TrEMBL record:
Keywords: Heme, Iron, Membrane, Metal-binding, Monooxygenase, Oxidoreductase, Transmembrane, Transmembrane helix
Name assigned to this protein: O-methylsterigmatocystin oxidoreductase
Transmembrane regions listed in the UniProt entry: 20-42
Superkingdom in the source lineage: Eukaryota
Species per Swiss-Prot/TrEMBL record: Mollisia scopiformis
Length: 561
């Protein structure tokens, strides 16, 4: 029995999926073999005695179920306080090494990225449900390096700046959407993010949330959420079960995964095929995708479906991330009463004034708005469970042995909720970063790990390539929100404030740290602010968004090189 993705209150939520969990009698022989192997290695390989301290758990199962729970964040923080800089959990037959200091992340993930940039074998996530094509699950190798190079060149800092006209145009619509139907802010933020990434990849705008393109994208995201959660699938915890025929008799994981892959492939190929047809007809909009279709992707060893998945992967990664953080920012603002809102208003009124809206050029003079961006990325981060780094060689750190085949995790919760560095870490407090001068990318590159602002974009060769675009979108839209609007708690019919859950319990179940749908009262600050917001959107519509003026060519030339 399993639950499929559901749509609740207009919001798609990834549902937990448990397929045919077998009795232990089915896998007893496999576990016995693995147990004997571990026993032999323990006594023959003395290095295993130097593994990081292990979180206690029941035999065989260990922390498999802890990784499945939605209170993993609470456990990750608790275990960090108990075990310190590095500790170990175990799911199935795999050791998970959790890094809980900036120094450990810098030394292991960044400086030794050639060892720690692969991925754990996921029979369900990578093989069955992705057909071996999703780069997020792809092990390190030639194919991964090729695709990673294509994606990174699309999302370099220089490329990210070239997308400013799209971001500004979409932000202007977002502001007017908030004027016209502020109660639908959750979906307005989602429309902004999906429209931005679809224009970059395929040159297609999404002026309304209720459209066929967004429906298809979120269908994929629901399925993606079902397959990616650590511990969700027994076969991913015990990969040897994928080659154990009796397991398929009691679990339909393989069939379900293949169904997901077929449905996702159909959608990504529809986008790809339409682009190819438009190119042939001479009507294709200017976009990165157009240049990519015309590039030598086949000579790089990609087939057509893999090429479609390259663009589809970017849509998957970019369609929710910024909207999740914009909605989390609203939760953070509400959690502080009017304190954050008033501080933002003061800065924007002083620096920008009331006769124009803030722009990217104002960023250097708006330290509080920049701090709001950094703080929401510390306080919440889109990928609730982080990303795994698979050790392809044995390694050591401060006397601890990290064996080949272990999963090394940046413990984002432990790092970003460390009370020694972030007092009252559960509190949304932008002032933590008021004097932080480095951008997210500059923080990642800093030699001193203590200068890292947060770890929500990961690290090493698996760092999120879209962080430059995401940071700019967050700055622009938070600045515009705080410039033009007041944000208050909504009230019920009796005039009583409706609370918003700013705790971990306020996040939707699953792999994404998105807030549960909530209500808030968004009001324009003054008639003057409304007049300016409406006029600039009218002007933008009259002028139109000229994609041909956007410099996709640099990225296209990089792909062809």
């Amino acid at each position: 029995m399993f639950l499929r993705g559901i749509k609740s209150g207009g919001v798609f939520n990834p549902a937990y999926t448990y397929l045919g969990f077998p009795g232990f009698f089915v896998i007893a022989s496999v576990l016995a073999t693995l147990g004997l192997t571990f026993y032999r290695l323990w006594f023959e390989d003395k290095r295993l005695r130097h593994l990081p301290p292990k979180v206690p758990g029941p035999p065989i199962i260990n922390q498999t179920f802890y990784h499945m729970q939605d209170d993993l964040a609470t456990n990750a923080i608790k275990w960090t306080s108990e075990y310190g800089e590095i500790y170990r959990t175990r799911t199935g037959t795999t050791d998970w090494i959790w890094l809980n200091s900036g120094e450990a992340v810098k030394e292991i993930i960044d400086r030794k990225s050639s060892i720690y940039s692969s991925r754990l074998l996921n029979p369900m996530g990578f093989e069955a449900a992705s057909g071996g094509r999703r780069v997020v699950f792809m092990p390190r190798g030639k194919q991964w390096r090729t695709i990673r190079g294509i994606i990174h060149k699309l999302l370099t800092p220089k490329a990210a700046k070239s997308y400013a006209p799209i971001q500004v145009f979409e932000a202007k619509q977002l502001s007017v959407d908030l004027l016209d139907s502020p109660q639908d802010f959750y979906m307005h933020n989602r429309r902004y993010t999906a429209s931005l990434i679809l224009q970059i990849t395929y040159g297609r705008r999404l002026p309304k949330f209720e459209c066929d393109e967004i429906r298809k994208i979120f269908e994929v995201l629901v399925r993606f959420g079902q397959i990616r959660r650590p511990g969700q699938w027994l076969v991913d915890s015990f990969p040897s079960l994928a080659n154990f025929p009796p397991f398929d008799l009691v679990s339909n994981w393989r069939q379900f995964g293949k169904e997901c892959h077929l449905k996702d492939s159909k959608i990504w190929m529809e986008f790809w095929t339409q682009m190819c047809q438009e190119i042939e007809a001479g009507t294709a909009p200017h976009s990165f995708g157009k240049g990519f279709v015309n590039s030598n992707w086949a000579e790089k060893g990609l087939d057509e479906l893999q090429a479609a998945y390259v663009l589809g992967t970017m849509i998957e990664a970019g369609s929710e991330t910024t909207s999740v953080q914009l909605n989390n920012t609203l939760v953070g603002i509400l959690s502080r009463g009017q304190e954050v809102m008033k501080a933002a208003h003061e800065e924007l009124d002083r620096v920008v004034g009331s006769s124009r809206t803030p722009t990217f050029d104002d960023e250097k003079n708006l330290p509080y708005i920049r701090a709001m961006v950094k703080e929401v990325n510390r306080w919440r981060f889109v990928n609730k469970f982080g990303t795994n780094h698979y050790a392809t060689e044995d390694g050591w750190y401060k006397g601890y042995f990290i064996p080949k085949g272990a999963v090394v995790m940046i413990n984002i919760w432990g790092l970003q909720y460390d009370p020694k560095r972030f007092p009252e870490p559960e509190k949304y407090e932008p002032m933590r970063y008021y004097n932080h001068k480095l951008s997210a990318a500059e923080s990642v590159s800093a030699a001193n790990p203590n200068l890292r602002d947060h770890w929500c974009y990961g690290g090493g060769r698996r760092i999120c390539p879209g962080m430059h675009v995401a940071e700019r979108s967050l700055f622009l839209n938070i600045a515009r929100l705080m410039w033009g609007f007041d944000v208050y708690h909504a009230k019920d019919e009796n005039g009583v404030e409706i609370p918003v859950d700013a705790t971990f319990g306020g996040m939707i179940p699953g792999a994404t740290a998105a807030p549960q749908p909530f209500k808030c009262d968004i009001r324009v600050r003054t008639p003057q602010h409304e007049k300016i917001l409406r006029q600039e959107w009218m002007d933008a519509q009259a002028e139109g968004l000229k994609l041909e003026d956007i410099n996709f060519e640099g990225a296209e030339e990089d792909v062809k090189a």
